[in-house]
Amino acid sequence: YAEKKMINVLVSESFWFQKNVSYLKRPDPDLPLCVEQTVLVWIPLCFLWLCAPWHLLALCQSANVNTQPLSKLYIFFLSLIFGIQGEVPDVPRFSLFYISFGLELIALVLSTVADIPPENPEAGAPFLSRITFNWLNSMVLKGYKQPLVQEDMWDLNESDSTAFINERFQHFMKPELDAARVRFQNKMKKKSAKTRDSAQEDPQQSGLSSGLGKGVSQDVLMMVRKKDSKEEENYPSSWLITTIYKTFKRILIESVCFKLLEDVLTFVSPQLLKLMISFTQDKSRYAWEGYLYAVLLMVVALLQSLTLQQYFQRCHVLGMKVRTALMAAVYKKALVVSNDTRKESTVGEMVNLMSADAQRFNDVTTSIHLLWSCPLQIIISIVFLWLELGPSVLAGVGVMVLIIPTNALIATKARKLQIENMKFKDKRMKIMNEILNGIKILKLYAWEPSFQKHVEDIRGEELKVMKKFAYLHSFSILTSCCIPALVSLATFAIFVSVSNDNVLTAEKAFTSISLFNILRAPLAMLPMLIASVVQTAVSKKRLEKFLAGEDIDSDIVRQDPIQLLCVSSVNLDIEPGQLVAVVGAVGSGKSSLMSALLGEMHSTKGFINIMGSLAFVPQQAWIQNATLKDNILFGSPHEEENFKKVIQACALAPDLELLPGGDLTEIGEKGINLSGGQKQRVSLARAVYSQADIYLLDDPLSAVDSHVGKHLFENVIGPNGILKNKTRILVTHGISFLPYVDKIVVLENGVISEVGSYENLRASGGAFSKFLDTYAKEQSNQGNSETGHCFSYTGARRQHPPQPAQWQVRACEMPSPADFQVKLGVFLQYLRAMGWGYSAMVFLIYFIQTAAFTGQNLWLSDWTGDSVEYYNMTYPSWKRDTRVGVFGALGVAQGLFVFLGTLLLANASINASRILYSRLLNNILRVPMVFFDTTPIGRVINRFAKDIFTIDEAIPASLRSCLLCLMSVLGTVFVICLVTPFFAIVIIPLALIYFFVQRFYIATSRQLRRLDSVSRSPIYSHFGETVSGLSVIRAYKHQDRFLKHNEVTIDENLKSIYLRIVSDRWLAIRLEFVGNLVVFFAALFAVISRDSIDSNVVGLSVSYALNVTQTLNWLVMTTSALETNIVAVERVNEYTQLKNEADWVTDTRPPQMWPEAGRVQFENFKVRYRPELDLVLHGITCDIDSTEKIGIVGRTGAGKSSLTNCLFRIIEAAEGCIRIDDVDISTIGLHDLRNRLTIIPQDPVLFSGSLRMNLDPFDKFSDEEIWRVLELSHLQSYVSGLQEGLQHKVAEGGENLSVGQRQLLCLARALLRKSRILILDEATAAVDLETDNLIQNTIHKEFSDCTVLTIAHRLHSIMDSSRVMVLDAGKILEFDSPSNLLEKEGHFYAMAKDAGITLESNTHL
């Protein structure tokens, strides 16, 4: 009976709708009881039942995953609906219900702060925490409190790790690439049908093996490829994009769904705004409608924020993954790439594939969905606008379309200017690089002013181009600022003038303006996106070409156990345990033979058979940026005893004592802090430690001094060395070792001419004996000088004093935490450089622009008020014209003010750039030499490159955006407060939330960015290192270890990138929430005070509020960017405040002809390099008479170079003084001193420019004088033979001249100056004997009437000096004529004896 009654009730109409009662048309609306008790219960229940299987599955699968929040959500959903109750029939039940409901609400809130695992909080984060990115809070807090370090980064999700991504990518890449290769070959077959037919006939006729036939057809392919390469792609193409799509299909589809949802939600707000305005117009409607619209506006905005941020998160993660996949693929390919492919691209280009091209893909992928989303948004906007304003919308759209070609024109012009600008930048950086590398020469010659002027001229040109670019940019900003004003002007003007019935109401005007605002973004984004897609297409081609290149042929080298090692076709058999020497002239193919044995060469026919493991020592040692120990172990396990034995044998023990960290010393990139000999010995030690079966040694003894070479041969390579039972193939030029080898292989032009033992070949009188004769002569000539100049194992580091800065045990520059809070002072410094007048004007003009914008909108809202005033009346045309005219004038005014402001800002910022740069340059050239000895050049160059680039381009842009955003936000707040004064109450709390979120974010974000850039460079340097050491890695078969290392390095970088992506989303969600609250309160207060305000003003206030969300977000981004960029000003200023050396010119100037006699006196002269270091010279006292020739000798570190540095005041005296012709040199200006002395330095440094500029940068001398000195320095015939003569361009570092010619040019410089005192820092091994003789003879003849100080490395050259000074540990041990010193049999005698000079031989000399 009860059931029957229930069904009757359900079926009866009155249960659903009571007759004559409307549930909505009353002040407190309600739903019918039945709807409450059925529909509202069923919806959440269905939701719960539908989700139950997943929920249960998750519970079954894992006990520890935090999934309760989902159930909390369902219960919350359910309870919420139950909570909508009418009367209260049962009080106890009602109370209990609300108590449980309250508890569930609390449980829901608590579930968002669930216990999260510390390794990776995202994995266990509950639903609410995921959509709001709450799980990042702990990291943001940590970053705010203290500087973050790499160890603070959380572990990556499995699906984001490099190994996982790479595996998936390779899985899809292989079939795609194979298919592309097939397509490519088919294409080539069609192309080369005729050619191939004719080529294939030959091999078949001669009946060659199929293998060779295959080879020929391959060659034909190569020929055809070369021919077509100009016309079209000569590699398998169009497979990379499909591979990327297949690999990341899921995340792409997810992001499409989110973007679609967000686009739809975007158009809901203007419709709600329309309803809101119509509600305020009709005062008879119930208040709850207004509240409902206010809440709906907020809910829609919130949903839009959440979907947008999920979409962005997916897109950025996708970009990150694509970049990772490409980087890993390029690295993997580089390990297996064949030598032919490798020759096509330099190391720099390969690193570029990994950095620039992969990054381009990353940037495009993040915004790829805009390709379909922008057109969609444009179409929907136009449809809605048509519904509002009819055909007059086309006028507005027409204006937008007309602006596009203007912008395109500006963009192409801008690109040209940008290219021109890059040329000047490159030119300037090239010269700066040379100046900093050759700074010592500039100081010694006092050439700084000439180079400074040169750099400033280029900088002037660069700033001119920058100014043009800035003006062009101002123009494009004018168009983009005028677009909204012009579009709304055109649309509204045509709308009201088409017919008198068309009256502009508040609904129409503000809904249209909201839609126009939506329309602006896609129109601005589309051209930019298309440009970046075009750029990425170039990267795609480059990546496809590299990744589809040929791999190295692994079949060339066989591992056949029958023979041990033989090379066919060159026909060479080597028995186990033999020591074989390979000799031959330069270019005879010795290194090529080594490469062939490693399987690196392209085999045309024949094979190589190797049994056992290989170790390889290349001609140029390859050193990793790791500790010395890691370089030797090279992935093998550490065995202390074996390690020590290897160190002893390779003569590394003395070096380890010198290195600050012993074997744990960090070696810089390319072994920067080791001498050439040390690098070679480390390379040899690596091979010895690896305990391989076969050793390929490509001339390892050439880079070391002769006695070290002897030690290595005896202890390692030779018949009694560590490797005596191994097979060794040694390429060598050292004749002395040949008698001790088992077999000698002589190469001539890539062919083995002789093989046999030393005695047999010597007797045969063939190519080998010729080779012996030429080399024996040279070596006997050098033999005398060898021992004279190698006093210690580490002779290569004699140029500078020990430099703590170069010996860091860790080579990474970490900014100190103090950098992070950028001081207000730095902003003020920048504004001061811009000029206070300029700065004030810019602020004022931007302020007026905002006022014009606000005024225009207020005028519009007043205009829409006419529709009420002239209701059912004819609208007077004069009024219409006034309205349109003023509206248009205000629109144009704001465009012009922005244009003016941007122009002024451009002028001001270029002014600032000019001032900051010239200060920096001016100061760096005046900094003492000690600074350059202790600071890595890269760090100084960074100031001139990256920091100046930031000041030139990034700071002005972010300053402008920042100002515009700030003004926009202030304008919005002003309008809302003007309309609804209540709003002022919530400004303070909202501003506080905003401020705190921003401060937290900026602190963390900046550090995540820093960690990103710090962890990014190891990826590229490791890759560059791998490519340059490829043959070594392949020889040792360590490819897998390097792949793993690369994955780890990329993962470290991904950790900070991932968190940076999430932190951007974390901020956006919170800021948009503040923006959504602004919308909500603007609408709410409009509803509350709807009786006292007009509907047109409500439209204005809410449409402003809807726009504020984006602006707030943008404001934080720009302020954050500005704060990050302004650090560049601080870094540049830091270098402008470095302490300078003494003045270049002082009031006390020496006489015009000084020094006339050329007498030099040292009086108790003491000197140290830096205040905290020990003395280098301990009280030197001596007199050098006019025209005396003095030789200065001593072991490495005795203080010889310090002595010359003191004469030029490169280092200042700690005590005592130096007098030249009775003038104390410390009293005169540096340039007065340095201009009157002449030096021929040890390293001949040349600068890029003309030959004439290298000799006479100030254009003081006539061409005749220059030709005369060229004749004296034996260069006249060479220079006159050049096409451009004296204007011949010298390459960077003088690379297009031989070392000998460079040294002769330095001699020419000295001859041109011809001062009374000449200092000769003798070139060691740089010069061949012939050049050396030329230099010595010229000096004897031309400088006979000068005082000459020679720092000698070859004792022969100073045996004819008037006196010789023997230095040791900064003191003079002996100072007398060479013959007297030899008779004394003291220090000098011992050194001479070592060099094979005796008293008798000296008399012959």
TrEMBL record:
Family: Belongs to the ABC transporter superfamily. ABCC family. Conjugate transporter (TC 3.A.1.208) subfamily.
UniProt-recorded Gene Ontology molecular function terms: ABC-type xenobiotic transporter activity; ATP binding; ATP hydrolysis activity
Membrane topology: Multi-pass membrane protein
Main location: membrane
Gene Ontology BP annotations: lipid transport
UniProt keyword Cell cycle present: no
SMART domains: AAA (SM00382)
Subcellular location as annotated: Cell membrane
All copies of domain ABC transmembrane type-1, residue ranges: 255-535, 840-1124
Pfam families xref list: ABC_membrane (PF00664), ABC_tran (PF00005)
Ribosomal protein recorded as keyword: no
Keywords carried by this UniProt record: ATP-binding, Cell membrane, Lipid transport, Membrane, Nucleotide-binding, Repeat, Translocase, Transmembrane, Transmembrane helix, Transport
Annotated stretches, region: Disordered: 191-214, 780-802
Biased composition (Low complexity): 204-214
Coiled coil: none
Protein name: ATP-binding cassette, sub-family C (CFTR/MRP), member 2
Annotated organism of origin: Oreochromis niloticus (Nile tilapia)
TM region(s), chain numbering: 290-312, 370-387, 393-412, 469-498, 518-538, 833-853, 884-906, 957-976, 982-1002, 1067-1088
Domain ABC transporter: 547-774, 1160-1394
Catalytic activity: ATP + H2O + xenobioticSide 1 = ADP + phosphate + xenobioticSide 2; 17beta-estradiol 17-O-(beta-D-glucuronate)(in) + ATP + H2O = 17beta-estradiol 17-O-(beta-D-glucuronate)(out) + ADP + phosphate + H(+); leukotriene C4(in) + ATP + H2O = leukotriene C4(out) + ADP + phosphate + H(+)
GO cellular component entries: apical plasma membrane
